[in-house]
Backbone:
C-alpha cells in the first residue's frame, strides 16, 4: 500500500467520479482506476459501488476513509514539522556540548548567532564527553562542541578556540606567589585529577608522560568544577583552563612555562550525517571564524 494510493482513494471518495478525480489529480483515468482496483484487491473488499464512471462509496469505503484521512493529516503535520525544523531562517539546531562550556562559551555563542538569525532555535543537551558523543552517534544531536579531537576520520573537527592551561593551587600553597612554573616542579605534589569521562584527563596524562614525571593523585573528581573546589580547599593542585565556570575564590592561577599547554575547543560533526539547511548555516558561521562578543 502506497501513500499515493491513499491520496487517490480519498480524492475519488470525495468526488465520486473517476474522470473528474483523475483531472483533479493530473493523472489519466485508467491509471486512477487501476490504482483503486489494486487498493481494493489488497484490502480484499470493494470500496465503491460502480455505475459507469460514477462511483458511490460503500460502507467499507466509508470505514476506510476515516482512517486514511487521519493518516494523511499526520503525514502533512510531519512534513510541516520537518520543514519548520530544517528551514534555514527559522529551523532548529540540535547541539550537544561539554558541561563546563555551558557557563560562558555556549550561551555567548547562541546569543551571538541569534542576533544574526533571530528565528533560529536550539535543542541543547550537555554532559561529559561520553554522554554527548552518544547523543551524536544515536542521532539525537547533529553537532557536538567538545575539547577532544576525533580519534578517527568519522568526524570532522572544526577548531573554535584555544585557551592556555594553568597550574592551579590554593592561595596558601608554596607556589602561589610564583609568576610562572615549570610542571617539573610539581612532581610528588598531591594532585586532584579527573575520572575517565573528562577529555582533559587524556590530554593531561599524555603531556605528563612525555615529560617523564608522575602525578601523586589524591582525588579523582567527576568534573572540572569539583576539581577547582578541591584545589581551593587546599586538598591538592591541578591543571585547568581558565574559564568562567572555574574562576572561584581561593584559587591561584599560575602560567605554565612549558610549551604546548593549551586547551582546545572545537566542533565535531559526522561526515556522512545529513544536516538540515539551518544546521549547515550554523556550521558555516563557526567555520568562518565566529568571535564571542
Residues:
Amino acid at each position: 500500500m502506497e501513500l499515493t494510493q491513499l491520496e487517490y482513494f480519498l480524492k475519488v471518495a470525495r468526488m465520486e467520479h473517476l474522470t473528474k478525480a483523475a483531472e483533479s489529480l493530473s493523472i489519466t483515468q485508467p491509471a486512477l482506476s487501476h490504482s483503486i482496483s489494486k487498493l481494493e484487491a489488497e484490502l480484499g473488499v470493494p470500496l465503491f459501488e460502480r455505475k459507469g464512471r460514477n462511483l458511490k462509496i460503500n460502507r467499507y469505503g466509508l470505514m476506510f476513509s476515516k482512517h486514511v484521512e487521519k493518516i494523511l493529516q499526520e503525514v502533512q503535520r510531519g512534513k510541516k514539522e520537518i520543514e519548520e525544523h530544517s528551514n534555514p531562517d527559522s529551523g532548529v539546531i540540535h547541539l550537544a556540548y561539554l558541561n563546563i562550556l555551558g557557563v560562558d562559551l555556549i550561551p555567548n555563542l547562541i546569543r551571538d548567532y541569534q542576533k544574526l538569525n533571530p528565528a533560529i532555535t536550539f535543542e541543547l543537551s550537555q554532559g561529559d564527553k561520553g554522554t554527548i558523543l552518544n547523543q551524536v552517534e544515536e542521532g539525537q544531536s547533529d553537532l557536538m562542541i567538545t575539547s577532544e579531537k576525533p580519534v578517527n576520520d568519522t568526524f570532522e573537527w572544526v577548531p573554535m578556540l584555544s585557551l592556555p592551561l594553568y597550574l592551579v593551587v590554593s592561595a596558601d600553597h608554596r607556589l602561589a606567589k610564583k609568576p610562572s612554573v615549570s610542571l617539573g616542579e610539581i612532581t610528588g605534589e598531591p594532585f586532584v585529577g579527573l575520572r575517565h569521562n573528562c577529555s582533559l584527563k587524556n590530554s593531561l596524562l599524555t603531556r605528563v608522560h612525555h615529560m617523564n614525571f608522575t602525578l601523586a593523585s589524591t582525588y579523582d573528581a567527576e568534573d572540572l568544577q569539583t576539581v577547582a573546589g578541591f584545589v581551593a580547599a587546599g586538598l591538592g593542585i591541578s591543571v585547568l583552563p581558565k574559564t568562567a565556570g572555574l574562576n572561584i575564590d581561593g584559587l591561584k592561577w599560575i602560567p605554565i612555562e612549558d610549551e604546548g599547554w593549551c586547551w582546545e575547543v572545537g566542533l565535531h560533526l559526522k561526515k556522512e550525517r545529513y544536516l538540515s539547511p539551518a544546521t549547515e548555516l550554523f556550521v558555516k558561521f563557526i567555520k568562518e571564524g565566529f568571535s564571542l562578543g
